[in-house]
Design brief:
303 residues, alpha/beta, N-(1-d-carboxylethyl)-l-norvaline Dehydrogenase, domain 2, 7-stranded mixed beta sheet
Length: 303
């Protein structure tokens, strides 16, 4: 069990851990940041060293700290594997990554409860210690493969920063259409965006999504495309294709490849492929032999 820690870094992530760790039963014995101009403090007495520094500085800071066997050295970067911690590994320390799946802002909430944590580790004991730390912080531990960290982090960025970037484009377009100042336009669109995301607590994306593309309203989509241009039109087209795909595929299904992805209407092809029994009947009427049978039956009907 992790009982003591050192937090190295001076940003919002470091401050969040300095505040949250004591409440999780972890005593912080040392803290340090590079702007101090001092060398990192002695760290041999702590169970875990958290490197809450910029991604590009992790390897450099890791090379400067004095750690040894049994200790756990952890970085907090989402996109990186464990290779930046090679210096600690050579000294016998265990290594890991603990990435909180939550936004960090200067004036926002700093707690961790209710969020998930992406975890990778050099061995099972390190993975277990980090998973236990996540639970003590009120988080859900998610074990991630070292090689998949860039893809994992890209998904997290799309879910957070990508949402804000998309909203910014919607806001700019709304202001062009209405002439409203930014605060009023943001106040008008924000409930719409938050309500759409709120549905995801209860339903998967293919059931939560709304809009003309999900209804098959091609006329409205065409009017939107006529009003848009440039990069925004290309963005709209891409999102429309995704919405159509959600309408025709279960949530989480991979997109179709090749010509099917361009049409985005694979559901229309299935009925054609499901008619082999019907297609075998036309040959019977074309055969001239049944004709005498029809003549032979006619007198029986008249009787």
């Amino acid at each position: 069990m992790i009982e003591t820690a050192a937090v190295l870094g001076g940003g919002a992530v470091a401050r969040a851990f300095l505040e949250a760790l004591p409440g999780a039963g972890v005593r912080v014995l040392a803290s340090w940041h590079r702007r101090s101009g001092l060398q990192p403090p002695p760290l041999r007495d702590v169970d875990v060293v958290l490197l809450a520094v910029a991604d590009a500085a992790i390897a450099e800071v890791c090379g400067r700290i004095d750690v040894g066997p049994g200790q756990l050295v952890v970085h907090l970067a989402g996109a990186l594997g464990l290779s930046p911690l090679a210096a600690a590994r050579r000294r016998g320390a265990r290594t890991g990554s603990f990435h909180p799946l939550r936004p960090f802002t200067r004036d926002g909430a700093r707690g961790f409860s209710g969020f998930a944590a992406g975890i990778s580790a050099s061995d099972e004991s390190a993975a277990g210690d980090l998973a236990q730390l996540a639970v003590r912080l009120g988080m859900t531990p998610l074990l991630t493969a070292d090689k998949s960290r860039p893809l994992y982090h890209a998904a997290a960025v799309l879910a957070a920063g990508g949402q804000v970037a998309l909203f910014a484009e919607a806001l700019r377009t709304f202001r062009d259409a209405t002439g409203l100042p930014e605060p009023q336009a943001r106040a008008a669109l924000l409930p719409l965006a938050l309500n759409a995301l709120e549905k995801l607590w209860h339903e998967p994306p293919d059931r939560a999504i709304t809009g003309p593309a999900t209804r098959g309203d091609l006329k409205t989509v065409a009017s939107h495309r006529k009003a848009l241009s440039g990069e925004l039109l290309r963005l709209y087209d891409q999102l429309t294709r995704i919405a159509e795909r959600l309408r025709t595929h279960p949530a989480g299904a991979p997109p179709a490849r090749g010509p099917a992805s361009r049409s985005s209407r694979p559901h229309r092809r299935r009925p054609r492929a499901a008619r082999p029994s019907a297609s075998s009947r036309p040959r019977a009427p074309r055969n001239p032999r049944p004709a005498p049978r029809r003549r032979g039956r006619a007198p029986r009907r008249r009787r």
